[in-house]
Structure formats: structure tokens, C-alpha cells
Amino acid sequence: MTSKAEFTSEEWKLVLEGPPSAGMVVITAQRGGMLRETVSIAKTYAEARQHHGQSELLDEIVAAKPVMDHTRYRSLEELEEHCLTHLRDAVALLGVKATPQELDEYKQFILTLADKVANAHREGHGGEQSVSEAERAAIATIAQALGATTA
User: Fold this and answer.
1) Average model confidence (pLDDT) across the chain
2) Which of 16, 25, 50 is nearest to 117 (CA)?
3) Which residues 6+ apart lie within 8 Å of 59 measured at CB?
């Protein structure tokens, strides 16, 4: 099993930034609901903590406060590309240092987080839509960056 001790501080920071980066891609995909969507990230971490013991690596990731790069971006496109680069780099790193199962669990956690963020705020006039087309597209983009597929 892979643990935090097997990563340099910079590598670990990259791994920790992956899930909140995915959340940010979804949050910025559609206007409105930012507070609820941001809170859903923390809730997703709390829910994952309840499954403690199933994966040492994931336990250590969700035990940490969600970390987000606070760099200022000139556009939402620049923010999105930076977040997707974080995801790609984290997955590449874990592909080398973690087991295939741990890598899959990391990807699944990120996709679950992205889905919960998208579902945190009803979209459209009158809130008739749980997930907007823009959010669905963001989740598909995240899955592509992870090298995963969405269901």
C-alpha cells in the first residue's frame, strides 16, 4: 500500500490538489450555486473519511483539508486548463508510485466529487435541472484528463 511518506512534499501537494481542482472545474462551468458547490467538496471529503481503512492512500488524502492552488488566473479558461493539468500530473505521478487499485480509487474519488459538486445546486430557471449541460461537459473533460470514462 502506498502512503504519503513515499512522496516528496511537492509531489504530495500535487496529489492533494487533484480533487479540489476537479471541483473547481465543475464550479466554474456554470454560474450560480458556488457556495453550495464549494461546501459539497468538504462534504465529499467527510463522507470519504467514513470509509476509513479501505485505502491507506485515499485515507491520507481525505484526512487533509482540501487544498487549492490560489494562483490568480486571467480567465476561466486559464483556470480550467491549470486544474486539468494538475489532474493529469497527479494521475501520472500516482501511475508511477501507487498501485493500479489505488490509482483507480483516486480517479473514482475525483469523479464522485465532481458529480456531487454538479448536483449541489439546481440549475436552470426554476431549478428544474440538477446538472447543467456545461457541468456534464466539465465532468467529461475531467474524466478525459484522468484517463477514465463516465457512466
Assistant:
1) 88
2) 25
3) 49, 52, 53
